[in-house]
Amino acid sequence: SIFYSQERYGLYGQTFKMWKFRSMVENADALKNRVANEADGLIFKNENDPRVTRVGKFLRRTSLDEMPQFWNVLLGEMSLVGTRPPTADEVVNYSDFHWQRLNVKPGITGEWQVNGRSDVKDFDKVVELDLRYQNVWHPWYDLAIICKTIYVVFARVGAC
Fold first, then answer.
1. pLDDT digits (tens, 9 = 90+) for 49-98
2. Is pLDDT of 26 > 90?
3. Res 24: pLDDT
4. Beta carbons within 10 angstroms of residue 28's beta carbon
5. Verdict on whether the full-model pTM lies above 0.70
6. Closest-CA residue to 41 (of 106, 100, 82, 87)
7. Buried b (16+ CB within 10 A) or exposed e, 107-146
8. How far is Cα 52 from Cα 143, in angstroms, rounded to an integer?
9. Which residues, in sequence order, are bridge partners of residue 5?
10. Which position has the higher pLDDT, 142 or 30?
11. Contact at 8 Å (CB) between 88 and 9?
């Protein structure tokens, strides 16, 4: 299938299936433990992840792999702008500090995507960016993040 779905946690910890275009080999989840994690904390990052296909590299570099998440927005599970939706691997190890990020709907884009993206490899920094978004939220702020997202995507800032 060209689509990939993964259980993610949204508003107040409710689970939902987040959709993406497949960018990795079919059995990527089963192979994850063979790939070194270059990030600190609960997130998983590897810049040269061997599970990513050639087409997948292009999709990720251009952020096209995220397009199916508009379906999640239409279903009301996500918003255009919000916090990064965490995986089950992350949530199982959450402290009270981390749970705060689930007080808003997750978004296709947000603070982490425009002010950190692939450069932030420390999970607590991702959470701090998400909480900053929550604390300063305003409709104009969402618009600013959307505009910055367009720039980040076309300039390929921090793209994998």
1. 778 888 988 998 888 999 999 999 999 999 999 998 999 988 998 999 89
2. no
3. 82
4. 18
5. yes
6. 87
7. bbbbbbbbbbeeebbebebbbbbbbebeeeeeeeebeebe
8. 32
9. 19
10. 142
11. yes
The dihedrals phi and psi of 63, each to the nearest 5 degrees, come to: 65, 15
Is residue 116 within 8 Å of 106, Cβ to Cβ?
no
Contact 160, 57 (CB under 8 A): yes
- Taken as a whole, the chain contains a residue count of 160
Section 90-107 average pLDDT: 92
Q: Which two tokens stand for residue 25?
A: 């080999």
Q: Supply the pLDDT for residue 77.
A: 98
Question: How close are the terminal C-alpha atoms of the chain, in Å?
Answer: 22
Residue 145 pLDDT level (bands cut at 50, 70, 90): very high
Q: Are 84 and 130 in contact (CB under 8 A)?
A: yes
- Residue 106 phi, psi dihedral angles, 5° rounding: -70, 160
β pairing state of 107-109 and 79-81: parallel
Give the residue carrying structure tokens 């997202």: 149
Query: If we measure between CA atoms, which residue out of 92, 68, 82 comes closest to residue 6?
Result: 68
